[in-house]
Amino acid sequence: MNYKNIIIAGGGVLGSQIALMCAYHGYNTSIWLRSNDSIKRCKTKLEEIYNEIKEDIHKMSINYNKDTYCMALVSDNNFNEVDLINKLDNAYKSINLTTNYDVFKDSDLVIEAVSENIKAKEDFYNKISTYLKEDTIIVTNSSTLLPSKMAKFTGRFDKYLALHFANTIWKNNMVEVMLSKYTNIKYMDEISNFAKSIGMVPLKLYKEKNGYLLNSMLVPFLFSALDLYVKGISDYKDIDLSWTMGTHAPKGPFQILDTVGLKTAYEIVLNYTKVPSFLAPYDFKKIAKLLKQYIDEGKLGKLSGEGFYKYNIDK
User: Over the stretch 253-262, which tens digit does the pLDDT of each residue have?
Assistant: First the structure.
């Protein structure tokens, strides 16, 4: 593995986090975005994530505990807060934001994190295919779409696989590496080594699975909470409290939804709305309608300042 130039396509919640971790660990990092408006939104996300990481580094320096320990930033318990923040500052300033497809010409690795929509991904892969070097690897951070369904759009069946990150990756530093039936297995090891180089712990999936490991457990959990809400069983605050108080988890399902982003949740739910009602365990059409209402009102989640809850985004 001899990667130098990493391109993240899409500057959403995870795209921005991935870019910061790549830059932090010494890679030439660019985020490709569809428009100048997307660049503006990405700058806001990057700044917020940068401030959140900096705050976590400070908390860690005062009172180390597993909830604030920035696993992807330091390799042991001995660190210098000033050095870590200086390194973070340099990474934050070094990231290149662009709408120019020429950025893909020198890419060694493309991490695709565009909308969770197969048409959007097909359009993206088709457009970059003429710019890529023969040996460029493409990975998708898709939460629900299988790489075998999209490999034909990339023009490089054997060099395409999934690399799925968890949220707040500087702390929750696991990443899922999943083959498609077309992937040359040597790239699983290559991408796993890259993941380690940016402070991640790679978890390998040798067979494709919708939702990977984490989301195979998380998505039904979120669906069950949304279903309770849209059917009027309880309100979202009490549903969250039932989970946090009953399990001592730091966040309830609606707080998690706000963190993930309601657009992402909506796009995932849309994939299930065509399931016949007698086969569906949840009322996906009502759930989609609820999420669309929030999105239309500009309540996109934590990064927009409001989702199910309100947030102070100036902090």
Answer: 999 999 989 9
**Distance separating alpha carbons of residues 175 and 113, to the nearest angstrom:** 14
CA 4, chain centre distance (Å): 22
Q: How far from the centroid of its chain's Cα atoms is residue 106's Cα?
A: 24
Helix (H, G, I), strand (E, B) or coil at 111: strand
Cite the DSSP H helix spans in the chain: 13-24, 36-62, 81-94, 118-128, 147-154, 186-197, 214-230, 236-247, 253-260, 262-270, 284-296
Q: Residue 73, exposed/middle/buried by CB under 10 A (0-12, 13-18, 19+)?
A: buried
Structure tokens at 37: 């408006």
Q: Among residues 274, 283, 305, 147, which one has the least CA distance to residue 223?
A: 283
Question: Is the whole model's pTM more than 0.85, yes or no?
Answer: no
Structure-token match 């530093």, residue found: 173
Residue percentage of the chain with pLDDT more than 90 = 77
CA distance linking residue 40 with residue 141, whole number of Å: 22
252-298 pLDDT, tens digit per residue, is: 999 999 998 999 899 889 989 988 877 788 999 999 999 999 999 99
Assign 314 a pLDDT band (cuts: 50, 70, 90): low
